[in-house]
Amino acid sequence: MHAITISEPGGPENLQWTEVPDPSPGAGEVLIDVAASAVNRADLLQRQGHYPPPPGASDVLGLECSGTVAELGEGVEGWQVGDEVCALLAGGGYAEKVVVPAVQLLPVPGEVELISAAGLPEVACTVWSNVVMHAGLGEGDVLLCHGGAGGIGTHAIQVGKALGATVAVTAGSAERLERCRQLGADLTINYREQDFVEELKKETGGADVILDNMGAKYLGRNVDALATNGRLVVIGFQGGVKGELNLGKLGAKRGSVAVTTLRARPVEDKGRIVADVRERLWPLIENGSVRPVIDQVIPMAEAANGHRALEEGGVFGKVVLTAKS
Ligand SMILES: NC(=O)c1ccc[n+]([C@@H]2O[C@H](COP(=O)([O-])OP(=O)(O)OC[C@H]3O[C@@H](n4cnc5c(N)ncnc54)[C@H](OP(=O)(O)O)[C@@H]3O)[C@@H](O)[C@H]2O)c1
């Protein structure tokens, strides 16, 4: 089969569409004929040599895919050869075939096209596990999502609205904020021109849940933006990893801070998240309340251009890579 391999750590030009051996499914695993994968920010770090795959994972890039079940490993139940699926992967998605534990499979929901479904598993599992399973967002709560125009943000806006929350987002331009508003965001804040703490407090009083992609750079201001009993969940470090946390301020609000990653979790843990996503989030996609937001679809062999697009900025939602031309 063909897959994107990395000639050496570095720029997008080091991504190459090459011939590699086909994977084969072990016990509890499924072989997928990949229709499409999608680009994640973590892929850019892995390409640069800063984010090695966890032990046992494929060293081919790609944290998600859609496709057709081609072969079942020993003991797999509940799936058939020919089923159209999408999957959360620890790696290996930028390829014509990939092997994945069966517990990380999801059916392609309702009206969603097979190619578009490639952009769902990573955002769905990340947003759901953090905002709902961990932080318990519910009706009437205020959700602040930083980077509202990104892959995670465009999904989080829709999930927040579907659950009856008030959703505030930050983004870097008026045009991107307007698109967030069209997706359902109630309060839009330009992080280049406005103070998000001030705006959020003025309009809502404070956030019950914050989904943060910036890490250290926003730590202090995120604590300031929390409401009483607020939950800050940090999932990205685009603003660095070392910050100062004022425990007095956090304690006065009886607030909490969590920092999580999805990729490094054990298979059982991912299986638990995928099962909850299937049970509680998939119906919201089936009924059209939450849709995949795809900025562009390009051939997987040109994955380098997808990486360049994310690095340059301006992508709204996801970049999808199709395995078959
Ligand atoms: N922990 C996990 O398990 C996990 C899983 C998936 C993703 N992530 C992380 O979550 C983050 C978002 O992922 P993604 O797929 O949505 O990436 P993405 O599509 O590349 O979006 C990144 C976003 O960051 C925003 N941004 C840049 N500077 C900002 C600032 N100063 N304030 C607020 N927002 C800013 C950008 O906004 P503008 O374009 O509007 O400037 C852009 O929308 C990434 O850091 C990713 O690594 C973590």
Report the major sheet: 7 strands, mixed
Quote the distance from N terminus to C terminus: 14 Å
* Average pLDDT over all residues: 97
Query: Helix share of residues?
Result: 25-40%
Radius of gyration: 19 Å
Shape: globular
Structural class: alpha/beta
What oligomeric arrangement do these chains adopt? single chain
| Percent of residues in beta strands | 25-35%
Please describe what this structure looks like.
The protein is an alpha/beta fold. The chain is 29% helix and 26% strand. It contains 9 helices and 15 strands. Strands 3, 4, 5, 6, 7, 14 and 15 form a 7-stranded mixed beta sheet that branches. Strands 10-9-8-11-12-13 form a 6-stranded parallel beta sheet, sandwiched between helices. Strands 1-2 form a two-stranded antiparallel ribbon. Helix 6 links the parallel strand 11 and strand 12. The structure holds NADP nicotinamide-adenine-dinucleotide phosphate.
Descriptive terms for the model:
325 residues, alpha/beta, seven-stranded mixed beta sheet, six-stranded parallel beta sheet, 9 helices, 29% helix, globular, binds NADP nicotinamide-adenine-dinucleotide phosphate, ADH-like_N
Give a summary of the structure in a few sentences.
The chain has 325 residues and is α/β, with parallel strands linked by helices. 29% of the residues lie in helices and 26% in strands. The structure holds NADP nicotinamide-adenine-dinucleotide phosphate.
